[in-house]
Amino acid sequence: MNLYPFIKPFLFRFEAEKAHHLALQSLDQTYRLHLLPTLIGTIPSLPKSFCGLQLPNPVGLAAGLDKDGKYIDALSSLGFGFIELGTVTPLPQPGNPLPRMFRLTDSMAIINRMGFNNDGVDACVARVKASAFYQQGGVIGLNIGKNAVTPIENASSDYLTCLQKVYGVASYVTINISSPNTKNLRQLQGGQDLIELLKTISHEREKLSEQYGKRLPLFLKIAPDLDDDAIEGIAQAILEYNIDALIGTNTTLSRAGVEQEPYKDETGGLSGLPVKNLSTQTLKKFAQHLNGKIPLIGVGGIMNGEDALEKIHAGAELVQLYSGLIYRGPELIKDCISSLKSKN
User: Fold this and answer.
1) Which residue from 125, 226, 289, 335 could staple onto 230, CB 3.0 to 4.6 Å apart?
2) 258: domain range?
3) What is the pLDDT of residues 294-313, one digit of tens each?
4) Which of 117, 181, 168, 171 is nearest to 142 (CA)?
5) Which phi and psi angles does 53 have, rounded to 5°?
6) How do residues 23-40 score in pLDDT, each as one tens digit?
7) Is pLDDT of 344 > 90?
């Protein structure tokens, strides 16, 4: 029973960030009333093994939708194979001033400049531990970043703090160096900055592996706005420092395809349908450089099952959704799983 086409016009009357919170609160209430199974129906099964993780299906929730882990159980009930939370930072921070999220409705896109607004890593970890999804063995990734007040030259200390705090609860950890909304963050995607960061994190992971008796997979999330030299450099670095998977991609600074939109000049990262091709091309280039040595996760502009299949053909093993959910609703999850299942 797909009610989202009827709910969507109501949500779209509100400013984008307000609608975001209203939608999640409504979803959580529906979950608590035990109504979601009836509304969602049967989710196709498509088991997938990835980096030692056993997933019920290869369609996940991308980071950003539930930054603080407030809606884990409600979101997992929609049928995701895995959930990624965050981005979390060592200290709580409010993010950038409002307004900071804009719908480009005709283009099925979103521009955001949220700025890693979150309650801090400790609050998120506590919510993960309290969730039924976690307690039942669900796969939960934690996406980590740096605080806005931390100088870029000290960024590694923030990533280490977050890694240490999430290690005991996360199924995997994503290193986010690709958001355009934290000053200088994308500087970490290249050259010696990237090498030093990955070297430091990789070394800390080895120490934590001994402490906890488990080796937690590390993923790296990159931007679509990379030239060929940058892609080659990142590919070499993640192989050298034993990063387990690559997530491609985050939002873009490009405004190609949205030139007619009233919010096109708002600063921030563009997501949704206009980023699909750029994201997929970046994914393909990484697949060529990595040559099967590191698995990939495709995210960016997935609006239907065929888009998910396109990411798989580009080299991804898993996909993640975010903006597509805003425009399509939970039915998109089932659509993607069904399309991926049909290719098997």
Assistant:
1) 226
2) 4-343
3) 999 999 999 999 999 999 99
4) 171
5) -95, 135
6) 999 999 999 999 999 999
7) no
Tell me which of 179, 279, 323, 339 is the catalytic residue.
Answer: 179
CA atoms of 9 and 26, how far apart (whole Å) = 15
SS (H, E, C) 168-201: CCCCEEEEECCCCCCCCHHHHHCHHHHHHHHHHH
Q: To which residue do tokens 């985050």 refer?
A: 250
Cis-peptide, bond into residue 87, ω within 30° of zero: yes
Q: Does the annotation mark 76 as catalytic?
A: no
DSSP conformation letters of 21-87: HHHHHHHHHHHHTT-HHHHH-PPPP--EEETTEEESSSEEEPTTSSTTSSSHHHHHTTT-SEEEEEE
At 185, which amino acid appears?
L
Our count of domains for the chain comes to: 1
Question: Is pLDDT above 90 for 334?
Answer: yes
Tell whether pTM > 0.90.
Answer: yes
CA atoms within 13 A on the CB side of 252: 28
Instruction: Encode pLDDT of 151-210 as tens digits.
Output: 999 999 999 999 999 999 999 999 999 999 898 899 999 889 999 999 999 999 999 999
Q: What confidence score (pLDDT) does residue 191 get?
A: 85
Q: Tell me how far apart the alpha carbons of residues 294 and 4 are, in angstroms, rounded to a whole number.
A: 37
Nearest to 287 by CA among 230, 235, 219: 235
Residue whose token pair is 């804009």:
102
Centre a 10 Å sphere on the Cβ of residue 40 and count the other Cβ atoms it contains: 18
Distance of CA 102 to the CA centre of its chain: 19
Query: Residue with structure tokens 């100088």?
Result: 151
Q: Which of 195, 183, 297, 292 is nearest to 246 (CA)?
A: 297
- Kindly report the CATH number assigned to the domain that includes residue 285: 3.20.20.70
